[in-house]
Amino acid sequence: MIQLAPSILSADFSQLGRSVEDIERGGAHLIHVDVMDGHFVPNISFGAAVMKSLLGRSGLPFDVHLMIEAPDRYLEDFMTEQTEYITVHQEACPHLNRTIQHIRSLGAKAGVALNPATSLSTLDYCIEDVDMVLIMSVNPGFGGQKFIPSALDKVRQLRRMADERNPGLKIEIDGGINIDNAKTVTEAGVEILVAGSSVFGTGDPEERVRSFLERIG
Ligand code: DX5
Ligand code: ZN
């Protein structure tokens, strides 16, 4: 099943509770939570306290994307009864195997994100151990950037690699996803689409989610 994970990074921060209710009514599957520390990426977003303020506001699971250095220090903070995925960046984890085990030991599914210039070969020794790989289709740090086309070939190659070694692996894509390119990325092998500005940027988020789902359905 293809899933849509709207990113609340692009939502109105003064109305986050209402935003998650809106996307839930529209039929979204996950809440993508973009955490930025101003070190790993050149922007600061919000931390676990803001995410936790949304506990119970919807029935949608949290899909936590940690764009932070030393994520191991903060994993427990993001583990809640609503947390489904915790994703760390390969580039931020010198002991990636340990970090993946740590996430799983908390009871979440473990994701690994790769920046646009990071090779799939960095997954050679851990692909069997992860639940999800997030392919960044922009350089992380900001919403509203343009999709980098080389991400498509990366998704296709990852799908082949996963079919051989971890067929249950989910591929997520993040950055510059909109109603026009959604179908192309799912055809390449993506199962979880992150969409920030194209859901929350203009108009009614509930309606935008519905249109997305019609397009990828
Ligand atoms: C980028 C974040 C994304 C971002 C996507 O650093 O990880 O999740 O919010 O935003 P759009 O969909 O606007 O590119
Ligand atoms: Zn993200």
Supply database-style keywords:
217 residues; eight-stranded parallel sheet; 8 helices; 32% helix; binds zinc ion
Estimated helix fraction? 25-40%
Bound small molecules, by name, code or SMILES, are: D-xylitol-5-phosphate, zinc ion
Structural class: alpha/beta
End-to-end span in angstroms?
9 Å
Query: Which sheet architecture does the biggest sheet show?
Result: 8 strands, parallel
Number of contiguous helices: 8
Average pLDDT: 98
**Low-confidence blocks of residues:** none
| Helix/strand order, N-terminal first | EHEHEHEHEEHEHEHH
What does this protein look like?
About 45% of the residues are buried. Helix content is about 30%, strand content about 20%. With about 220 residues, it is an alpha/beta fold. The model has no long low-confidence stretch (mean pLDDT about 100). β3, α3 and β4 form a beta-alpha-beta unit. Bound molecules: D-xylitol-5-phosphate and zinc ion.
Describe the structure concisely for a colleague.
With 217 residues, the chain is of the alpha/beta class. It has helices spanning 16-26, 48-52, 75-78, 96-106, 150-165, 182-188, 197-200, 205-216, and strands spanning 3-6, 31-36, 62-67, 83-89, 109-114, 132-136, 170-174, 192-195. Helix 1 packs parallel to helix 8 (205-216).
